[in-house]
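User: Please fill in residues for this 512-position structure.
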C-alpha cells in the first residue's frame, strides 16, 4: 500500500467545462443503427421502430452531442438517399464497412431519435467522394430558414423548422489511406478551406471542425495538422483528434498508461495550432474536437492492424466491431475521461466512439435485452457528476516505468466544482489507480475548496469501479457481472477526504 497526497484547490482552474465534451458518435456501421437503436418488431420498439430500452440507457449515459452519420461511412454517403419516403430510398453499397445500406434511417429519423435520447446533432459532410456543393446542399436543407427548392423538400419530408445544427465536421479521417477519397494534407486543406468559406457564407453561425490525424501514430501526424491548419486557420473553430487504445501483448501496465498518451496527443495538437497562430500573428485559439476516442481491440498483438473486419458478401447490419469490454478496459476508459477534463481548456467537444453495439457502452440482442458494458459506468458517472469547472489536482503517488512514457504516476485525478450557494454547490473528484500491484491510500486536502464554497463538505455519493478479475465483463448471459459500488471506508475528517483505491480501479466521490 502506498500513501498518496492530493489537494483540491479552486484556484487551479483549467476551464469551465463545455458539456459537448460528453458527446457520442453514431455511425451507420454494423448493428449500430439497424438491430441496435432501430429494431421494429422488438418488444420495446415504439411506433417508429426505436427500441425504448436503448433510449433509456442512452439517457442514463448522459450523452450531450452525437456525431453522425460517420466515420468512414460518411466518405461515401449521399445524404439525399436518407430523406424522403422510406419505400423509395435506394439500397447502396457501403464501401467503408463492406455492407449494404438500406437507408431506412436518415437525417429525419435520426433527429427524431435524438429528441428521445435528449442529445444534440453534430453532422459530418462527405469530403471523400463529394465536395463543396453537396456540403452546401446539406447545410441548406438542414439549417436554412428561406423558401428554396431544398427547404421545400425538407418541409415536404415533414420538417418545417430548420434542424439548427451548429457543429459540422469537414469530412472524416482524410489522412487515412483506408478512407474513401483519402487525400494528402495540402489537397485536403485547400478543399476544407473553400468548403468552410462557402458553408459560412450560407450560415455564419455554424462551428466547423477540420480533420486532424486519425491517430498520433500516423506517419504524417504533426505535419498533417500544420499543413491543414495553414490552409484553414481562419475558416475553422476546431481540429479533430481520434485515438483508440487497447491492451497489447497482455501488458496491462502499459495499457494503463493510455491517459498519458492522450494527454500528449492533445498538448501536441494544441501546440501545433498555436504555432500556426503565431505565424499568422493571430491570438485565435483553435479548439480540439476529440471526436473519436475509446478502447478498441483493433490491432493484433504485434501492433499491426488486424484485417478489416468484414463478413463475406454485402450484408445488412452485420456484427462488426462488437468488442466486449472488461473491468480493466473500463478503468483505462475512466482515466481517458479524466484526461479530457484535465484538458477542457482546449478540448471543447469530444465524442465517445461509439454508442450501441459497435465498440459501445451499450449492447443489444435482436429480440432480446439491452445491457451496460463496463465502460458505461465511468461515462455515465462522469457525465452526471462533472460540474461547472474543472480544476487540476496535483498528486504525489507511487509510479511505474512505462516503455513509452518513462515514469508514470499511479494516481491521476481531476476535480470539478459547482460554485454557488444552493444545493447544487459541491465538488466531484475523479481518480484512477493505474498500478497493477499497489493499492493507494489517498488523503485529499479539501480545506481550500470548502472555504471557497463557504461550507463544510461531506461525502454525498461515491462509486468505485474495480474487479478482482480484471478481465470480468458484462455479457448477454451475465449482463450485471461488473458494476460500481460505494467506495469502501470513504470519509471526511479535519479538512481531509480519505479512502483507499485498490490496484486497477477508478472512482468518483461527490462532496457537498
Ligand atoms: O469508429 C470506427 C471507425 O474508426 C470510424 O469509422 C473511423 O472514423 C475510425 O477509423
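Assistant: Residues filled in for all 512 positions:
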Amino acid at each position: 500500500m502506498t500513501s498518496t497526497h492530493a489537494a483540491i484547490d479552486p484556484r487551479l482552474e483549467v476551464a469551465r467545462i463545455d458539456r459537448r465534451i460528453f458527446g457520442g458518435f453514431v455511425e451507420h456501421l454494423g448493428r449500430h443503427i439497424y438491430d441496435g437503436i432501430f429494431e421494429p418488431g422488438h418488444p420495446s420498439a415504439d411506433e417508429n421502430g426505436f427500441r425504448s430500452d436503448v433510449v433509456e440507457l442512452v439517457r442514463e449515459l448522459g450523452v450531450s452531442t452525437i456525431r453522425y452519420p460517420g466515420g468512414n461511412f460518411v466518405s461515401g454517403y449521399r445524404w439525399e438517399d436518407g430523406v424522403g419516403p422510406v419505400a423509395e430510398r435506394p439500397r447502396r453499397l457501403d464501401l467503408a464497412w463492406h455492407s449494404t445500406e438500406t437507408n431506412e434511417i436518415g437525417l429525419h429519423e435520426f433527429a427524431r431519435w435524438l429528441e428521445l435520447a435528449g442529445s444534440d446533432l453534430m453532422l459530418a459532410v462527405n469530403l471523400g467522394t463529394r465536395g463543396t456543393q453537396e456540403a452546401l446542399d446539406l447545410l441548406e436543407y438542414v439549417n436554412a430558414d428561406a423558401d428554396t427548392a431544398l427547404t421545400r423538400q425538407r418541409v415536404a419530408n415533414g420538417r418545417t423548422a430548420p434542424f439548427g445544427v451548429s457543429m459540422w465536421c469537414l469530412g472524416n479521417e482524410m489522412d487515412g489511406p483506408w478512407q474513401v477519397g483519402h487525400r494528402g494534407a495540402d489537397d485536403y486543406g485547400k478543399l476544407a478551406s473553400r468548403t468552410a468559406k462557402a458553408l459560412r457564407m450560407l450560415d455564419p453561425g455554424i462551428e466547423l471542425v477540420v480533420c486532424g490525424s486519425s491517430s498520433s501514430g500516423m506517419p504524417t501526424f504533426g505535419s498533417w495538422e500544420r499543413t491543414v491548419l495553414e490552409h484553414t486557420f481562419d475558416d475553422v473553430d476546431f481540429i479533430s483528434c481520434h485515438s483508440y487504445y487497447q491492451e497489447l501483448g497482455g501488458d496491462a501496465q502499459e495499457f494503463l498508461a493510455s491517459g498519458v498518451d492522450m494527454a500528449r496527443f492533445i498538448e501536441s495538437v494544441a501546440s501545433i495550432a498555436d504555432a500556426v497562430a503565431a505565424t499568422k500573428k493571430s491570438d485565435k485559439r483553435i479548439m480540439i474536437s476529440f471526436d473519436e476516442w475509446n478502447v478498441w481491440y483493433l490491432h493484433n498483438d504485434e501492433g499491426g492492424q488486424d484485417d478489416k473486419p468484414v463478413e463475406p458478401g454485402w450484408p445488412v447490419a452485420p456484427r462488426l466491431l462488437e468488442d466486449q469490454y472488461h473491468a480493466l478496459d473500463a478503468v483505462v476508459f475512466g482515466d481517458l475521461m479524466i484526461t479530457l477534463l484535465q484538458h477542457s481548456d482546449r478540448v471543447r467537444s469530444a465524442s465517445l466512439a461509439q454508442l450501441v453495439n459497435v465498440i459501445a457502452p451499450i449492447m443489444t440482442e435482436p429480440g432480446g435485452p439491452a445491457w451496460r458494458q463496463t465502460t458505461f459506468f465511468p461515462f455515465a458517472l462522469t457525465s452526471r457528476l462533472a460540474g461547472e469547472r474543472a480544476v487540476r489536482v496535483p498528486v504525489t503517488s507511487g509510479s511505474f516505468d512505462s516503455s513509452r512514457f518513462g515514469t508514470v504516476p499511479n494516481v491521476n485525478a481531476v476535480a470539478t466544482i459547482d460554485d454557488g450557494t444552493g444545493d447544487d454547490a459541491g465538488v466531484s473528484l475523479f481518480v484512477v489507480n493505474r498500478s497493477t500491484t499497489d493499492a493507494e491510500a489517498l488523503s485529499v486536502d479539501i480545506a481550500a475548496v470548502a472555504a471557497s464554497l463557504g461550507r463544510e463538505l461531506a461525502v454525498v455519493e461515491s462509486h468505485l469501479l474495480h474487479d478482482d478479475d480484471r478481465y470480468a465483463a458484462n455479457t448477454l448471459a451475465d449482463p450485471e457481472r461488473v458494476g460500481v459500488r460505494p467506495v469502501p471506508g470513504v470519509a471526511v475528517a479535519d479538512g481531509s477526504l480519505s479512502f483507499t483505491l485498490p490496484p486497477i480501479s477508478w472512482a468518483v466521490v461527490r462532496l457537498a
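For context: The pocket of alpha-L-arabinofuranose is lined by residues 27, 70-72, 172-173, 214, 292, 353-354 (CB under 6 Å).
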